[in-house]
Amino acid sequence: MLSGSAVAQLEEPIIPNFEAEPISGNAPLNVTFTDETDYGPDFDPDVMDVSFLWDFGDNQTEEGEEFAEVSHVYEDEGLYTVALNVTITENGTEIANGSVLKDEYIEVLAAPVDDGYPVVNFTAEPLSGNASLNVTFTDLSDFGPDFDSETMNISYLWDFGDNNTEEGEDFADVSHTYEDEGLYTVALNVTVAENGTEVANGSATKEDYIEVLAALVDDDYPVVNFTADPLSGDAPLNVNFTDLSDFGPDFDPETANVTRFWEFGDGNNFTSTETTGAYTYEDPGIYNVTLTLFYAEDNETLNMSLTKEAYIEVFEGEPSPVEGYPKLDFAGEPRAGVAPLSVNFTPIVDLGPDFDPVNMTVEGLWEFGDGSNSTEMNVTHVYETPGIYDVTATINIIEDGNTTATESITKEQYIKVFDSDAKGIMLSPGWNFISVPYVLNNSSVDFLFADVEYESIIYYDAASEIWLDVEELEPLKGYMVYALDFGMIPLDKLARVEDPIPGVPGASIPIYEGWNAIGFTDSTESLSAEFTLEIINDSYFEVVGPLNQATLTYAYIGRNGYEGEIGASDDKYVGTDIFLMEPYEGYWILATENTTLYAVGW
What we know:
The structure is a single chain. Helices cover about 0% and strands about 55% of the residues. The longest helix is centred in the last third of the chain and has 4 residues, at about 445-450. The strands form 13 sheets. Strands 1, 3, 5, 6, 8 and 9 form a six-stranded mixed β-sheet that branches. It has five domains: about 1-110, Immunoglobulin-like (Sandwich); about 120-215, Immunoglobulins (Immunoglobulin-like), CATH 2.60.40.10; about 220-315, Immunoglobulins (Immunoglobulin-like), CATH 2.60.40; about 325-420, Immunoglobulins (Immunoglobulin-like, Sandwich), CATH 2.60.40.10; about 425-600, no CATH class. By secondary structure, it is mainly beta. The chain is built from two helices and 49 strands.
């Protein structure tokens, strides 16, 4: 399928086109592209310059005035869509521009392995037609770098699928006539021999490759047919139509005057005696096209017609968004955890001063990186499978049914999902506030963070009111960790010390008047702040935490002895100290006097 657009400022528009050779073969495939653009009668090469932009469909481009002919090597197997944009300038000012796109134009087959030759392939022309259908087959096999045409011979065996075959060394190209209607599977077997001994063999089969239609009788003519190029593009779209009708073996163009009546589907039509013509579609839409033929035969005027439904598709031209808007960012929380991981995504959008909420609407699209997406603005998505995921957010501003502005942002490796069996302290890029729940068997930072990329681990010393670097992690203390990537301290590294001393509490730390960074110990269960801090109940005013790593804010504010109504302020829980504290999180406590914090239940 071909699609494209032409936007010209000359009196007659340019009609971009190009050809390529070869259009099929094994990787790596070197293809030569040649510009075949019709620049029209007003083009003057002495005063006008032409610049070419080739898009080869494999994320590679070539641009410049010297690239009317260009070669490109495709390294990977696949079907590639190729586009050419042509720009004409005069005295440095653009006066015409046009583009053409050929969908799935280049076919690159898999590169053969060293011992996999020959890689058999072939083509045929035509692939479809009425019986009796004469088809020419051409061998396109790759015999590899070790093939020596001086000492090796190639033998071909063609099976045409109608119980007929052709065999010999002279049949790299062969013609065959299909007499009967049907679909035919074609096979080619290639044998390479050296000094009379077979050294390699390969075959290829193309199922239902040749379509033979019923033979035409005289009354069946003419067989009306036509083509158009391009079939789609932005308005205004200039389309070239070509009559491909078959008038039969007895048709005499000298005595039969053929008139062609084209109906373009938008209320306009055109009558011509020529086989080609052009028409410009001004408005977006999908259009049926009809060709009716009128001609005289045996003193009788005949007519036949063909309609191709939904044949031409014309798109709305690309909108011009308000410069700089919309602005888009987003946040996900949490960004790491074990599967299944539920993540809340929130867009951060600035629609700009010209956004009209009465006449404009906003549509969004989330792409979560695991093959799932959502059109909700604020959305929760569950990642079921461990992995590292890119996330993309897109918003469109819609006015009168048309997209007037769009913005998209992708955050690479944004979400990290661990295996469901993985347990421990999760770390995300940036600052993390953590604690350990008991005296560890091995508490050294080097041991605990051996598999974590981090920049610093620090603890706030309330006595001196300074931050200190840390070499060992102790229970009851809250530590700030600046991680460079997602990571985890697994539970098997957080083992309790093997032989605690009988009668000695699990841990204790001094608490100083003012703010102190703490955790809690002797439990790996969630416990209320009221219970956890009971031993210093008369010595503190407020406890806050845990840290929201994405926003660097704290989720809860618990007031000791607070009896007012529990509510929310700036998206934080504000109320009594009954909210649950987590064993691996860090918290801040505002002490009203110096005291000592002990392990839970001591």
